[in-house]
Design a protein that fits this description.
By secondary structure, this protein is of the alpha/beta class. The protein contains 28 helices and 21 strands.
Amino acid sequence: MSTSRNSSSRSWSSVDASPAAASRQDGRVDLIQQSHERCAALGLTRIERPDYEPLMRSDLSVARERNQRLFAHAAPVMEMLYEQIVNTESMLVLTDAQGTILHSIGDNDFLERAGKVALQPGVNWAEHSKGTNAIGTALFEERPTLVHADEHFMHANNFLTCSAAPIFDPRGNMLGVLDVSGDQRSYHQHTMGLVRMSARMIENHWLSDDYSNRLRLHFHSRVEFIGTLLEGIVVVGADGKILGANRSALDQLAMTGISLRGHTLTTLFGTTVAAVHDHFRMPLPVPMKLSLPNGLHFHVSARIDWSTRRVFGGLPVGFDDGGGDVPPRSTEAAAAPRAEPAAKPPSGLRYLQTGDAHVETVVQKVHRILNRDIPLLILGETGTGKELLARAVHQDSNRAKQPFVAVNCASIPESLIEAELFGYDEGAFTGARRKGAVGRIVQANGGTLFLDEIGDMPLSLQARLLRVLQERCVTPLGSHKTIAVDIAVIGATHRNLREMIERQQFREDLYYRLNGLVLRLPSLRERTDLAVVAHRILQSECPQGAPEISPAVMDLLRRYHWPGNIRQLANVLRTAAVMATGESTITEAHLSDDFLEDVRRMAPAQTLQPSPPSVPVLPAQPAASRPAHVAAAPAVPVPAAPIEPAAAAPAPADMRTLEEAEIAMIRAALDAAGGNISEASKRLGISRNTIYRKLRWNKPG
């Protein structure tokens, strides 16, 4: 075959002869010609038969082991792509960043033909070895490349048509190449699109794995494209710094990876990590609408893999506690909170152990039933960290690598909760998605289902939930097919379920199905570890250097009643940390005025929950660093067996009950906010639904 450019040009034009492709042809001609010139400069000839000997088996094993993570992400994508090209005389090839083939799959007859030109695992297909080819040229050009028929430099490869796309990590480093090679007579113009799409899928999987414990913003100018391969993804650190992005994000933002990593969330989208967290912690949030400085508008959704996060009290914490522009895989060596000398910060249940005796008792009880298939029922006021405990149990269990699915039974409208839990088939009800939807129970298969505010589940659904828990199978709405599920169940509520059973508002049989072990989380005012909790909150908010808390402010924090518990404390400290930016200590000047007013107004309420006089106040340090006799001192009377809140000792007649005090706090916050429910919920650190529910249940008369 002729080696002239004219003859090659004729074959190139046959690849894509459509008028729409004409503008692209000149660029392809130049790319192929430049590659041929490089090959000639390397001393390669088109007619010689190069050394086709693959790597020794041991060397190939080393290469595969070195690229095991790439293979793990690419293999399922390759299997899916192969289903699209099966029986087309084609094969799929994965190489490392040096061009050595690590893995291939394809039609058997074509694999035999490809083997004759050493298109097989262990062989290097960089340009210096095999001349112009899609793999080697894509590596050199760092962009998707099509090499068809006699565009290949070596005549032996002219029977091939190859479409290759490089694979990059979120920081722009080359990981390898994905390639589809086939008989040149089977060329199809859509093959390159499939390869590019598959490469981006691998990159997105890599990004999600790399930054599973970081905030990820998924965005597009068209809201319907969020959740597709066209969406952009940027990764944000706890300090708001942009850490990485996928290629779709770079394309939409018209930036390079280096320039994007020079931005923060504020300079890029004009918002903050706290604002994003506040928006997406609302029930059923819609995508945010954010804009670039140049006026481009985007719809943004936020995601984070909560099952791998270390969080505290429901905070927007630790998009790992390490900040800055550090490669994600090195974060395990990040410094631990100052109060804990361990080199690796604790996670799961260990992270909850902050020195409070009551919490320590809860953790020890959980350890005893871990992986024993015993359901948990967590009791406690709003904001005490019930979901945090549930996530910690999941993280320390054998199910940690499987989904953790949380369902807030109070935040989902009663008309939708059945569909949300059990899923539904196509046409099950008006407004249902065309193809139906998988329910939250099925989503949790193999993992943990957390039913928050289980006391608010409609009575009509409780019987159906009980059936699922007993039979371990789900029947979606509108379907006659049952789906088997394997789930661990954790329930939580702030309500007194025994009283609800007496009022026939909660099924007794469901209660006994859920309460394998009942645990009560103490309110923040009952705990002795407030200083440690506050310090960890600040560490997560300011990983680059948390400010200290002045003695005067710490005194205010200890005097406050905390109706919103840890969630409210987190909101107060988050605001204070922002106000104290650039300063080493948080003072009263950094606290919001409404909080200071509440402290002064609620000071008499401190008599509502007096600490036992015999209980010493523990210093703000973890139990591991205290003398054993101090660590063992109970912060509050710890019952010998789990009890419901209603079983607590009655208050003196001249005192209000805790529930009455809580209602009074809510009414006071509403008055201070001029009746604005949203503003009052922010001040209290509780949801609007909680305010509505509390006031509805406590109407006079």
